[in-house]
């Protein structure tokens, strides 16, 4: 429940600070919607909101929806004990097994990428060798590439 005393600090704040507090209370979606409306209404306003969101750290503050923040929350939950030692041992073993499977899968993906890169490089080298061989055979038969460009009886350049 809001009281008159809760409203007093907001009245002392300027309108930009009140607008920021209002937007913060509604989350990142409100900031993004305001930015889109700003771009539609007057593009410098949208650009200013975008800059404020990045440099004011609005996009990175709060619940931290980034990948690293999720991982940190997850590891915090993993390390907490449930109080049941049998379950904790099972959970630790399962998580260790899943981490091993993830490492093995990431290693597989690395090998797959390396094999793809190698096959593409080998194909490039084969194409280059064929082109070089074809160019070399043209020069070995005694013909000159510019021979067709010269007229009969003219001196070579």
Architecture overview:
With 157 residues, the protein is mostly helical. The chain folds into two domains: 7-64, no CATH class; 81-139. It contains six helices and no strands. Helix 3 packs antiparallel against helix 4. It is flat. Residues 1-7 and 63-73 have low confidence and may be disordered. Residues 123-157 are annotated as: Disordered. It comes from Mesobaculum littorinae.
Any key phrases for this structure?
157 residues; mainly alpha; 2 domains; 6 helices; disordered N terminus; membrane; transmembrane
How many domains, in number, for the residues?
A: 2
Please give the number of β-strands.
0
**Main sheet specs:** none
Structural class: mainly alpha
Shape: flat
Strand content: under 5%
Helix content: over 70%
Keywords: Membrane, Transmembrane, Transmembrane helix
InterPro entries: DUF2852 (IPR021273)
Protein name: DUF2852 domain-containing protein
Brief characterization of the structure:
By secondary structure, this protein is an all-alpha fold.
Helices and strands, with pairings:
Blueprint: H1 4-12, H2 15-26, H3 28-41, H4 43-55, H5 67-79, H6 85-140
Helix pairs in contact: 3-4
Region (Disordered): 123-157
Biased composition (Basic and acidic residues): 123-140
Keywords: Membrane, Transmembrane, Transmembrane helix
